[in-house]
Structure formats: C-alpha cells, structure tokens
Amino acid sequence: MASSSDIIHFLLLSLSLFSVSCLSASQSPNTKPHPFILPIKKDPSTNLFYTSLGIGTPRKNFNLAIDLSGENLWYNCDTNYNSSSYIPIACGSKQCPDVACIGCNGPFKPGCTNNTCPGTAFNSLAKFIFSAGLGEDILFISQNKVSGLLSSCIDVDGFPSFTGDESPLNGLPKNTNGIIGLSRSNFSLPIQLALKNKVPPKFSLCLPSSNKQGFTNLLVGSVSGDPFKELSKFVQTTPLIVNPVSTGSVSVKGVPSDEYFIDVKAIKIDGNDLNLKPSLLSIDKKGNGGTKISTLIPFTELQSSVYKTFIRDFLKKASDRKLKRVASVAPFEACFDSTSIENSVPRIDLELQGGVHWTIHERNLMVNVKKNVACLAFVDGGTEPKMSFVKASIVIGGHQLEDNLLVFDLASSKLSFSSSLLAHNTSCS
Ligand SMILES: *[C@@H]1O[C@H](CO)[C@@H](O)[C@H](O)[C@H]1NC(C)=O
Ligand SMILES: *[C@@H]1O[C@H](CO)[C@@H](O)[C@H](O)[C@H]1NC(C)=O
Ligand SMILES: *[C@@H]1O[C@H](CO)[C@@H](O)[C@H](O)[C@H]1NC(C)=O
Ligand SMILES: *[C@@H]1O[C@H](CO)[C@@H](O)[C@H](O)[C@H]1NC(C)=O
Predict the structure, then answer these.
(1) Atom of ligand 4 at shortest distance to CA of 425?
(2) Is the CB of 384 under 6 A from ligand 2?
(3) What is d(CA 410, CA 214) in angstroms, rounded to the nearest whole number?
(4) Domains 4-220 and 229-424 equal at CATH topology level
(5) Which protein residue has the closest C-alpha to ligand 2 atom 7?
C-alpha cells in the first residue's frame, strides 16, 4: 500500500493529470516521417536502461532512464541549466490540461517560472510524486532537431529536501537525469512525435544485454526500409490490452491505464501449465491482475501466489533435469551450480492471446550472480501495489526483454516480439 505521505502527494497532484486534451499537432511542411533512432545502454549497477538526447540552447545532453510506463519526458534542469529556447507553458493555455498553476520566486530559469502549467516528474522508484513545470524546448533526437514537443523540467538541486532517497531521481542509473516515458499517454514522446508527423504511433525497442548497445526507434510510422525488415520473419504478434482502470499514481474513475498489458493465458514450464487461478491472469474490475511490461524493473516480478507456484514447479523440473541447486542469493531463490545447467534449463513459455508463444531464452531466464552460480531471474513482487492503487500479477522486467525486438503499434494496439534474437544468432547490439 501507498504510505500516507504518498497519499498527500497524490492529492496535491490529482488535479493535474489525466485531462490531456490539446497538443499542438502543427507540422512542418517539408518533413517526411523518418525514424528517430536513439541508442540504448544498460547500467550495470541498477540493471536498468537509458538513452541519451540533447535539450535546449545551448544544447545539453541528458541521459534519461527508459520507462515504458512513463507518461512524459522529464529532466533535471539543475541550477546551472538555463536554456534560452525554453518556453514555459502558461496556465490556462490550450496546451495546459490542468487547472492548477505554479510559480517561483526567481530568478527566472527553466524550472523557475511564474504562471506555469504543472507537469509531472513521475518515477515509480521514487518515494514521492513530484510536480514539475510543463514546458517546450528544442530536442535533439538522433540527427533530428525537433521543436514544439512538451516535456517537464524540475530543478532537483533547487529543493534541498530532494536529496538521497527522497530525490525524484531515486533508484535511476547514477548517470541519468530524468526519464523518457514511452507509455500511451498523450505526453509520451512517441505519441507526440507521431501526432506532429501525422503518422500512426508505432515504436520499437531492443534492450541490450551487458554493456553492448541496443536501440529504440521511437517512430516507425510508415517508413519503408526500416531496419527490422530482415528480422520480421521471427516476429510474432499479440494484442496490447488496455487496462480500463488507471494504474498510475493517481486513480481517476473511468480513465484507463497508459501502461502496456498483454494477455498471458498460461505459463508453461517444460510444456506443463502452471496451475494458477485464472482470475490472476486476467484483469479484474478494479484493475488488478494481468500482465504488464516494464523497463523500470530489472527482473520480472510475480505477485506472491504466482511466484510461489512458479518457483515450486521450476525447482521440480530443474531437479528432474539434474540441475544442482545451491544456496539462494537474494533477491533470487532458485539458484544453481552454473556448470550443471548448460543447455538444460527448464523451458518457459508464455502462452499469449492469438495462439502465440513467447519462449523465454535461457539467457533471459537465468542470471549469473557470482562465479559458478546462476539464478532464476524472477522475483517475488509481494501482494501490495507500489506507487499505484492497483497491482498486476506479472510485471515482465528488463532482463526478460533483453535481446528481444519489441514493436509497439498503438494504432492497431498490437505488440510484435521476436523472442530472443540470440536464438537466431543475432542480438540487439
Ligand atoms: C489524446 O489526444 C487525442 C488526439 O488529439 C485525443 O483524441 C484524446 O482524447 C487525448 N487523450 C486524452 C486522455 O486526453
Ligand atoms: C537565464 O537566462 C535569461 C535570459 O535568457 C535571464 O533573463 C535569466 O536571468 C537567466 N537566469 C539565471 C538564473 O541565470
Ligand atoms: C514571480 O512573481 C513574483 C511575484 O510577482 C515575483 O516576486 C517573482 O520574482 C516572479 N518570478 C519570476 C521567476 O519571474
Ligand atoms: C547459430 O550459430 C551456431 C554456431 O555458429 C550454429 O551452430 C547454429 O546453427 C546457428 N543457428 C542459427 C539459427 O542460425
């Protein structure tokens, strides 16, 4: 459950969300849709992923953590940051979805402006929900210079209380200074880019394993000759499900979730279905249950009852296969002598809507935690929601997504996925 201090922040911000209506969809006449390809790197200490893009005048490069569930792009416009092309969005303007208004005692700079529409600086790993200023500035995305997109900026240094684990940046890779959100929200970068370029929103994501580089293509649109054509023969498709209940930090009646859910019908270990209550795999009236995809957790989290069944069945199959179990290494439970597991790890498949299977490759299943010890890379997600009022039963995390090409097509609400590219002797790098 959210703590009482979280609730106070929920209330403060409850006015400011979920009524996004007018984004400027102005289009420069001569630009054809083209891909916006951003590099992705993995942070070895948090096992999270980030990208890099430029903002403002003079251009400053920011590393931003990648959050599939994130509603917008927000960055730390710290004390030394004073972009001359920054335009705060005025309260009550067409672009401002909110009735609230923020101000600042000055001196003027991004993150300290008067009569400014609030935006959010949401980080599901932080302890609180932070309000930032909604603004517009030039973004440098791969070779493209893009203006007219909305983002939020917050001066983290400007608030002495934002230190340590109280910071809006808590839990993110040390070298990052904000979040790039890729959710269905109208403020997310892929959606804003698609609207601006008048193409259907569609983006791909390929997370690298280790320190090799992956990529994200924020806007595929109708581009021909995209770099994924040759991989398309491996790709399977399943519907993206909309959870009708908001799963964010603020619960607003009748507002659906911005996050990406898929319909996992069964989990198979070596071909046998896990015996789970069907209600856990579907989304109930209150928005609980179901399976979502997240890039802001390193390892897949299973709600406790799913987790217990999963570990028990996995250990049984592992013992049938003569894997040598060793002492657990937190947060993992099922650990093995890695010299005993070569190519004999039990096979895990997610059976998805549309009759397709997502086979989790051995490299996505196990994680090497120390010399000769590999653990099943799934963790107990508990029973209570974090920074939200609802809880998914399965949250597929970064390790399980690595070296999988994922294409999110929001117009047709479909997810295409490759399963592991390693099985095809290629990778995200
Ligand atoms: C997002 O933008 C679209 C197109 O402009 C609009 O139809 C839709 O209502 C907006 N969604 C929200 C939640 O405001
Ligand atoms: C930031 O730059 C503006 C001019 O673009 C200037 O008016 C303002 O004083 C500067 N703020 C700070 C804190 O240096
Ligand atoms: C905002 O308005 C207040 C009150 O008028 C003023 O004292 C302050 O300097 C202004 N801040 C900025 C950044 O202009
Ligand atoms: C991948 O490479 C290995 C070794 O080079 C080879 O044995 C295997 O057949 C290849 N697999 C595919 C799908 O091309």
Answers:
(1) 1
(2) no
(3) 22
(4) yes
(5) 108
pLDDT, averaged in runs of 10, over the chain (429 residues): 30 23 34 72 94 96 96 94 96 89 91 93 90 94 91 86 85 97 94 88 87 68 53 84 86 86 97 94 94 97 97 96 96 95 90 94 94 97 88 96 91 90 77
4-220 fold: Cathepsin D, subunit A; domain 1 (2.40.70)
Ligand positioned closest to the Cα atom of 79:
2
CA distances from 303 to 306, 308, 310, 425 (A): 5, 9, 10, 33
Number of neighbours of residue 142 by Cβ within 10 angstroms: 14
DSSP letter (8 states) at residue 314: H
CA–CA dist 245, 254 (Å, integer): 7
Distance CA 209, CA 427 (A): 9
Reported pTM: 0.88
Q: What is the DSSP letter of 112?
A: B
Please tell me the residue having the least CA distance from ligand 4 atom 7.
425
Residue pair 64/234 in contact by the 8 Å Cβ criterion: no
Ligand nearest to the CA of 97: 1
| CB distance 13 to 250 below 8 Å | yes
- Cβ–Cβ < 8 Å for 203, 407: yes
What distance in Å separates the CA atoms of residue 213 and residue 40, rounded to the nearest whole number? 6
Q: Is the distance from CB of 288 to CB of 55 less than 8 angstroms?
A: no
Give the distance (Å) from ligand 3 centre to CA of residue 90: 14
Distance 94 CA to ligand 3 centre (A): 23
Q: How far is the CA of 112 from the centre of ligand 1 (A)?
A: 28
Distance from the alpha carbon of residue 101 to the mean position of ligand 3, in angstroms: 13
Of the candidate CATH numbers 2.60.34.30, 3.10.310.70, 3.40.190.10, 2.40.70.10, the domain formed by 229-424 belongs to 2.40.70.10
Domain map of the chain by residue range? 4-220, 229-424
State whether the beta carbon of 82 lies less than 6 angstroms from ligand 2: yes
Go through 174-204 and write b for each residue having 16 or more CB atoms within 10 A of its CB, e for each that does not: eebbbbbbbbbbbbbbbbbbbbbbebebbbb
Looking at ligand 2, which residue's alpha carbon is closest to its atom 8?
Answer: 108
CA of 204 relative to ligand 2 center, distance in Å: 38
| Position in ligand 3 atom list of the atom nearest CA 114 | 1
DSSP secondary structure code for residue 229 in this structure: G
pLDDT at 229: 64
